[in-house]
Structures are given as C-alpha cells and as structure tokens.
Amino acid sequence: MRGSWGGEAAGGQADGAVAVMGGLVDAVERSASALASPALLQERELGEVLGALDRVAARTHALLVAVAREGLGRGLHQGAGFSDVDWVRGVCPGLASRTAIEIALVARAAQQRVHAPLADAVQEGEVPLHRAAQVLRALMRIRPALGEAEYADATDLLTTAAGRAEFDEKDLARITSKLVATCLSEKEQIARAQAKHELRDVHESSLADGSLRRFVVTVGSDADYEAIRTVLMSPLAAPTPPKGAGEDGAQGGEPAQGGVPGAGSEATARRSRVSREAASAMVVSRWPSWTCGRRVSGATTRS
C-alpha cells in the first residue's frame, strides 16, 4: 500500500509540474501579447521590462540546466542514440547553438560530485550559465595536471569567483587564465614552448621578374625579435651608397650605364655582407635542432 501511495504521490507531483509549466507558458504568452507594442511603454517602464525579461531568461537557463542534468543522469540521450549536446539541441530546437552547448556542458559536469556545487549554484541562480561554462572549460584544461584534492580546491575557488557580482567578465577571464597558467603541468608548458619554437622560419621568395628578393622571418619570442631587429637596424645594415658618393651621401662620380649608380666601394660592400651574415647567424643560432629545406650562405631557406 505504501509503495502504491508513493507511486501515486510521485505521479501527482509530475502532473503538478506539467500543469505549472503549462501555466507558465500561458503567462509568457500573455506577457508577449502585452508587450507586442513596446512603443506604448514609458521610458522608465522600458528599463523595468528589460530587467524583468533578463531575470526570466536567466531563470529559464537555470531550469534548463536542472532538467537536462536529470535527463543526462537517466541516460535519456544514450537511449535516443545522441550525444549530450545533440540531445539538448533536439529537445530544445529554439536554443542558440552556444547556449545548448553550455547547458549540456554544465549538465554533464554535474554528473560528477566534484562539479555538483557549481551546477547547484547555476540552478539556484547564483552563477549565470555562461560563467559556469567558462569555469568548466578552464577546469577541463587543468584537470590532468592536478590531484583530486587540488582539483576540488580549484573547482571551489572558481565557483566562488563566478558567483561574485563584483567580478565582471574580464575579471573572471583573468582569474581563469591565471589559474590555468599556474596549474599547467611542466610537460605541457614544455610542449607548448617547443611548438612555438618550431614555428620559426625564414622564407625567401622572388618579386616581379626576379630582380627583387623578399625574406619573411617568423620569430617565436620577444628576445628573437629584439635581437634580429637590432642587427637589421644597425649601421652595418645601411644601404650601400652609390659609387663615388662622399660622406654626406652626395654622388661624386659618373653613374653607370643606364643611369644606375655603381655598386659602391669594396669596404662598404663587405660591411653590408657582414651585416647580412650576422642577421642570418642570429636566426640560425636560435633555430631548433631539426632542419628543413636547405641551407644557403648560413641561413635556412625555403622555396
């Protein structure tokens, strides 16, 4: 008898929830009809209505997380043969794609006890949906680098930060970025540095009819940039003056055939060559151990 009574009570609660939702839909429809002509609202009323609608939207997101959390916990998405995101999209086709992804992300994370407080905070309206999703994305990055106790502490820290109204979106982004940078494992930091290192390159190409050459230098750090810039901007890298030019740059000799100045003195040409070789050596000295392309005059080039 007790089990039967319990089943009837549960069924009654379900029927009550459906009835409440039906009433909520009707109320929303009536509100939409009343707001069909917002031009009739006073300026003060416009702000109040917008604020009220914002609270309704936030509360709706919280309820969506609560129901999706229960649905995923029961495995409804698996029974339908969908991923959690596709299941949420299927049952809520009116949601924006990003919103559906964030709802599924929070609902899925809530299946783990360590994330339950964050999901509870979303359902209670203490943490907005998009801020909870931002926190979870940061937690996913640092989880491999932390132990269980440390990860739980990080989760509590970010949950608290996401719920504090004095922290705006930029503040929360700085907090999560700082935590990720602090918690990333040494192995991952080394891998990221190596990937950045391997992107460096010197690419040579020809312009127009081949009379001009262009070099594109890709550097991976501020130190590389400053070193190369110092060499290229030094006096040794100055253009070769015309043949016969004095110290002030005035041309003192006859131009070559066709009006093109000569190649300059041997000493100036040697300084220019030394400058180019110094720049090439600077790049090569900071190059990774592997090589690609071919080496020409001490610099790695690619066709």
| Shape annotation | elongated
Q: Give the number of DSSP strands.
A: 4
Helix content: 55-70%
Q: Quote the distance from N terminus to C terminus.
A: 85 Å
Q: Element order, helices and strands?
A: HHHHHHHHHHEEHHEE
Computed over alpha carbons, the radius of gyration is: 33 Å
Main sheet overview: 2 strands, antiparallel
What proportion of the residues form beta strands (DSSP E)?
Answer: 5-15%
What spatial order of strands do you see in the largest sheet?
Answer: 1-2
Structural class: mainly alpha
Number of helices: 12
Weakly predicted, low-confidence segments? 1-7, 252-260, 283-303
User: Mean of the pLDDT scores?
Assistant: 75
Give short descriptive properties of this protein:
two-stranded antiparallel ribbon, disordered N terminus
Descriptive account of the structure:
- Helices cover about 60% and strands about 5% of the residues.
- By secondary structure, the protein is mostly helical.
- The protein has a two-stranded antiparallel ribbon with strand order 1-2. A two-stranded antiparallel ribbon has the order 3-4.
- The protein is elongated and about 100 Å long.
- The N terminus and C terminus are likely disordered.
